[in-house]
Amino acid sequence: MKKRAHILFIPFHRISLLEMMPIALKLVEDGIYAPLFLLRSSAFSRDDAAMVKESGMEVYSLWDFFRFRFKNEKKRHEKKAEDTSKMESSPQGKSGQFKKRMKSFFRFFMPEILWETLKYIYRILEAHLLYRQKRIFGLVVISDTLPGVEPPFIKVANRYNIPSLIVPFSLITPMGTAKIRLLKKDYKRNYSLKSIKNRLASRFFPTWVYEYEGEKMLAHPVSWALASRIVGVFPDQPWSICGGEATLVAVENGFVYDLFKKQGVPEKKMVLTGKPSMDAVYCASQKDKREVILRELGLSERDKVLLCAVPQLAEHEIMSWEKHWKEIEFLLSTFMKFSNMSVVLSLHPRSNLEDYRKLSEKYRATIAGRRIYELLPIADVFVATFSTTVMYAVGIGTPTVVVDFYSLGYDIYDNLPGVKIVREIDKLAATLHHLNSGVGKRIKMKKEDERRWILLDGKCTDRIAEELYCLAEKE
User: Which domains, and CATH codes, for the chain?
Assistant: First the structure.
């Protein structure tokens, strides 16, 4: 019996893997194509591979021991004392330390550009081998411009006439990326034009440069950019998440569609589908599902819920852990002042549950086990940083507070209905008090305006699968 052709999924990290899973499961259900996952980086654990396999899908492995650099399964943080003053840094496992030592070793004996070029050549050869071994009819990624596996695999896929689809993942804008670059410890070395090598690169390759508040910077470190250009995978628009050579981009809503147009992405490359996580919001909005979720949290329909998507700037190495814990304590202590609301916390997939458990118990908050998308429909007030979940909250009419105590200063959510942006610490309590006085009141929105933020019909995953099928049939 002839084996089914595959659709290859290449997640960038665990969070993107979780976003891709509903699409892959839809493919399994339809039975037309078999999903095949390439978990290429150290961002994935054995548990991630097991999750894929237990769902009836295949994880591609060339040589199991050498291909996968799985993280050590030990806890990321082992506390040696109860004193919270020792929560200042994010310790890494032994595997992470070993990886850093090996990188330092190779970079010491080999020029960085040569090292990056060899890595890309290896990935291109790897892609050729995979496409020859398997019947691949389509490729699914979250971007065609991020440093890593996707650009070389897309380049080789194009040679084999294999179409590629970028699926919705995160709200990434040039301004947002630039702001995060400025906050990184390696900004001067890797991105700033104050460096001689970076300044030279900007002269030869002006599209690599973006100016933010008078500061010019590169999209990527020079070593990666030059290496990717040498092998022919550097994107035409490096400041856009979809400015490379992918065939099609599935866009989550009208707001993001307009953002991509402004970034120079051709309209013919985009299709409005919604995002699989929007289907989770739709499902959780149904009365019986809401009741199940509330029961799991020890709550009822009568309880008022303040939902907080816990900031994770320390996990993303944008803020020190010392400042991070002070901010979390401040947020929780402020929430506790509103005794008529039950506080529910949603942790980012990168966050470690045990790190937050004691603080949540101290301030009588509940850490939810479900993803944020399933929790949004139960929230009467939503608190978050600049996140795609804010768009969903706006779409379902939930009053929202965006906290920006670290001067990120994004303007993407300015003047949105029902959204208050708090940039000064001493104004948070007053803002929450104002929203608390009207708890339970949803922001009314026209249907066409709602679709600008969220496609709430439970069919987003189906639409993405249909686009994949259409692309694969043209292969």
Answer: 6-72+111-172+241-275+458-474 (3.40.50.2000), 285-453 (3.40.50.2000)
